[in-house]
Each structure stands twice: as C-alpha cells, then as structure tokens.
Amino acid sequence: ATQAKVEVLGQQFPTDDFTNIKPAILRKVSAQLHLKHAHPLNTLRKLIESAYPDFTHAATISPLVTPFKNFDELSFPLDHPGRAKTDSYYVNRDMMLRTHTSAHEVEMFRKGETKWLLTADVYRRDEIDASHYPIFHQVEGAQIFTADAAGMREVEADNERLAGILASAHIAIEDTPHVSPANPVQPEHDPVFAELVAKNLKLSLNNLMLTLFGGVQGISKENPLRVRWIESYFPFTSPSFEVEVYFQDEWLEILGCGVVIQATLNTAGVPNKIGWAFGLGLERIAMVLFSIPDIRMFWSEDERFLSQFEDGKITSFKPYSKYPSCFKDVSFWVSQGNTLHENDICDLVRDVAGDLVEDVKRIDHFVHPKTQRTSLCYRIHYRSMDSSLSNEEVNVIQDQVISRLQEHFDVEIR
Ligand code: PHE
C-alpha cells in the first residue's frame, strides 16, 4: 500500500499515529499576517522592532520544526503537557508546527546573533472563543553578552542608558527581586553577572512597554503607565518573570521572559555568553491597542476590516454591524475509557466549519449512575464575518460535525 502523505508548505511528509494537522490549519500556514501591508499585526511588529533598532530583525522562518527543537533543546521535561498530541499540531512523530518562537533560540545564537528579534506564527490546539485561535503570532527577543568583566561593563553602560530614559518617563513599576530562592540564579552563573543581566532585561522591557502603551493611553505624572513584574517559571530561563500592564482598567498579561538557561547557549556553541530572552504574543496586545473585539478578525479578508488600517499607524477599529449568529447543540454518550479530549472536539468543529464557528462551549455533563457512561452536550455558535448564514447552511455544517464525531470518536449521539 502507498504510504499516506500530508503536504505542508509545498513539502510532502509521511503520516503516522501522531499526525493531527487538519486542512483548516494547513490552509493558513502560509498567510504571514505579520508581513501583510497595513495589517495590525504587521504594524505592531514594526512598532516593537522600532524599540530595538540595533537588533537583527527576523520574520520569515518556517513554522516546521522537530519536537526536539521545540522542546528538548530548550530543556522541556519529557512529560511536559505541551508535547501531547492534544495540545500541539504534529505533521508526524518527527515534525511539528512550532508552539512558540523560543524554538528558534538555539538556531539564532548558533548563527552568531547576539541581539535579535524574531516574529512568527505559532500553533497550539486550544478551545474556541473570541480570544483563542489555534494560530497566533509571537515576537521573541534576546540579547547575550560575554560573561566576563568587559561584557558586564557593557551591560552596566546599557543599564545606565535605559534607566536614564525611564527616569524622565511617566511609568510606575511594581518590581520583584531580580533573583530569589524560588526564582534562582543558575548554578553555572556568577550571581553578580546574572543580576546585572536580569536588570538589563527588566529595563529594556519597561522601555518596550512605554513604546507600546505610552502613546495611546495619554499617560501623565498623575496617571502613569503601570507595569507589574511577577516571578515565573519556564524550563528554558532562570530567573524567570512575567510582565503585566494596567490598560483600560485591567491588568493585561503581556509576556514571559528570563535569563537564558545556560544549556541553550552551550548547545548553540556560545558557552562563554550570558543573556536574556523574552516572548510576547501579538494578538492580545493588538486587540487592545486597535480595539479589535474578536481574534478571528485578524484573519478577515473583508474590506470593512482591512481598509480601516493604515500601515504603521495605531488607530481604533470601528465595528461594522455583525451578521446574526446561530447556535446548535449536540449531545452524545461517551463510554468509559474513551479518551476524547475537548481540543479534539474544537478541532473537528473548526475543520468542518472553518472560521464560521465563533465559539464552542460544553453546556452539560453528567455520568449515568448505572452504565457509568458520560453524557456531554456542546453548544456551537456559528457566525459568518461577511454574510448572513441561513439555517439550512448551518444545518449542513452541523450534520457534518455530528457524523464526524460518530466516525472518529466512537460516541453515541443522543
Ligand atoms: N516561549 C514562552 C511562551 O510561549 C515565552 C518565553 C520566551 C519565556 C522567552 C521566556 C523566555 O510562553
């Protein structure tokens, strides 16, 4: 028999028991919204790049990576949940769609890059609603220094420069210690070096937050930009942090970052360096900066969306009237031991309905006391961005959802 193949970005791959990429995703892997003229994600990318003018700016690296590169090279433990088929998109056991831009850290450092930004599309299997979409975009940034006295003088000079800019800006920072027992210096590092680098990371990112949010918010001495640092954990940084910004009456999670785990730099062939890295998601920031209410809109081809944006400018999106939505419920029995995962259901719905699905929610769940079978009910909201859906059209889609559920997941429709 001929081996089944899947084509991704013009390349053929054999499929196996890990293959879970669906046409709905495949159709979008070449979109590169972050490079599309006047697209909000492109404007946001360029704004971030403008805060790092002397860094290398990469933005066209293929999303196909080995699981080794996405996870192992970054010291992810073997049992990390991100590796599961239910959480990530696999072409097959040996190739996947990157789940984060950190997958390219080793490659960038190995090329000899010492300060760089990398913008790219990333892929995660997830629930479906107005703020979750299986494809989104991240910017990774990193800077490494030589781990000796001369390198540290460079860090100190940069810290002085950055602190100078911040001193005259309207910004209120809730800081953490640069290191703490729960968020330690790596054993390989000189603690003085690690603290200087962590400080450089924080100063640099506080300035980035000013670039991103200082302009649109109308900050002043009385009403400064509020930035909050929180200790965090990532397998590939220590110490690690998250940054939140207070924007429109809410704390927004903006990014994760930290001092790069030395194993990463050793693997990249630059063991004498020490440095930091950060990663931020573009969509959620773009949603608040451009007032875009639904994450699916970034994928819209509708002129009423696209024509509202001007290249390089942050402007407020004016919602056009939405077409009406329509929901359908599906209830089914799942026998004991069935491993059906909520992400499987979301993926299946998205594969059948494409961007016509707005939201999938479980609205009922109970276990039959005698048979021990589980009954589940999901409510699927359908809405088109650019036409009014008829009940007949939606029924055709819903029937397909139901028959695929029966075919692929061994469930009994109620
Ligand atoms: N890759 C991490 C994520 O996707 C973010 C991160 C990047 C954290 C670099 C630390 C350093 O959540």
UniProtKB/TrEMBL annotation:
GO terms for cellular component: mitochondrial matrix. Its main location: mitochondrion. Residues 321-414 form the FDX-ACB domain. Its EC number is 6.1.1.20. Keywords: Aminoacyl-tRNA synthetase, ATP-binding, Ligase, Mitochondrion, Nucleotide-binding, Protein biosynthesis, Transit peptide. InterPro entries: aa-tRNA-synth_II, aa-tRNA-synth_II/BPL/LPL, Fdx_antiC-bd, Fdx_antiC-bd_sf, Phe-tRNA-synth_IIc_mito, Phenylalanyl-tRNA_Synthase. SUPFAM superfamilies: Anticodon-binding domain of PheRS, Class II aaRS and biotin synthetases. It is an enzyme of class 6 (ligase). Gene3D superfamilies: Bira Bifunctional Protein, Domain 2, Ferrodoxin-fold anticodon-binding domain. GO terms for molecular function: ATP binding; phenylalanine-tRNA ligase activity; tRNA binding. GO terms for biological process: phenylalanyl-tRNA aminoacylation. It is found in: Mitochondrion matrix. It catalyses: tRNA(Phe) + L-phenylalanine + ATP = L-phenylalanyl-tRNA(Phe) + AMP + diphosphate + H(+). PANTHER family: PHENYLALANINE--TRNA LIGASE, MITOCHONDRIAL, PHENYLALANYL-TRNA SYNTHETASE. Is responsible for the charging of tRNA(Phe) with phenylalanine in mitochondrial translation. Belongs to the class-II aminoacyl-tRNA synthetase family. This is Phenylalanine--tRNA ligase, mitochondrial. It comes from Hypholoma sublateritium (strain FD-334 SS-4).
